[in-house]
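Data deposition worksheet. Section B asks for the primary sequence of the deposited chain exactly as it was used as input, without tags or linkers unless they were present during the calculation. Section C holds the resulting structure in token form. Section D is free text for depositor observations; keep each observation to a single sentence. Incomplete worksheets are returned to the depositor.
Section A, Depositor: J.P.
Section B:
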Amino acid sequence: MSVLENEPSYGGLYDFNTNGAVVSDTLSLDDYTPSGDLGHDGDTSWADRTRAYLDGAGGDRNVVVWSWCGGVDDNSEAGINAYLAAMNQLEQDYSNVTFVYMTGHLEGTGEGGNLHQRNEQIRDYCIANNKVLFDFADIESYDPDGNYYLDQGADDYCNYDSGNWADEWCAAHSGDPLCESCSCAHSRSLNCNLKARAFWWMLARIAGWSGPDGPSEPAESYKIPSAQTPKYGETVTYTVVIQNLDAPLTATVYLTDVTPSGLLYVSDTLTATAGAVNAATPPTLTWSGELTPTPAVTITYAVTVSTHLTHVIVNTATIAAPGYQTITRTATVVANGYSVYLPLVLKAH
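Section C:
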């Protein structure tokens, strides 16, 4: 996570601390508090420590994550059931806290080993009961291109039957930010960085982000891209939906969208379901019109990625009706980035 925090182009977006201090615009982690881990077969002493913490100094926490340290590989079906029951009871007793379930790290025992069977037991329970799961083991099973290694004896250090998939991937992608050096237990830098990105994604979803495919508040105006990690030369289509403004439906609304550096507007692609579009002077694109008789207008246009660099690109649309509040809607892509494989089960709300 420190790699993300220290990247200047993110502008402090991934700031965090580990001392539990509550600071504006910073993720507060009370790391290693309470002490210990999920233990071994049938041990639920961690649940007692959790209760003592939440009833005392940790009363301001809204997410609790307990991790395993080798305790799944030597566990039993009954032991895992004890873990699941204890987690579920904590959820019932502390309804304002999200409890994150976790699978155990890989040990090189493959798909036929007890570790995989117990991890599957955890996954099945989370899926059946709408729990939040950070699937640690699955993240260790895939490289960024989606190649699968669990069936080849993968372990937590990314070793497998024929080598080390993290070392091999980084050798083939020299200079990629996913390979930036960092330190975490039971892993290689590449997999550490994948887990950090997965963890941030999970926390954002817990906080209410609906993911890249739609807005958090569907009734509001929003802007989304067709791809999150486009490569050089690829086309991305942006969709802007204008709806439910503070202005009356008969008011004339204006949209201005300036294509940022690193993207090039594709000629003749600016369209709208109503109103008038103007792309005569790119990178500035405009639209104007009324929302009646339709309470929503959809505007789309295409761009191509013109940068070879890995770069976070924020694309902003400004929506204004004279005399009423001006709003902005942004959409973010990572040019020449890599998607993170994240098997995540989210609790339904």
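Section D:
The two ends are 28 Å apart (CA to CA).
Residues 340-349 have pLDDT under 50 and may be disordered.
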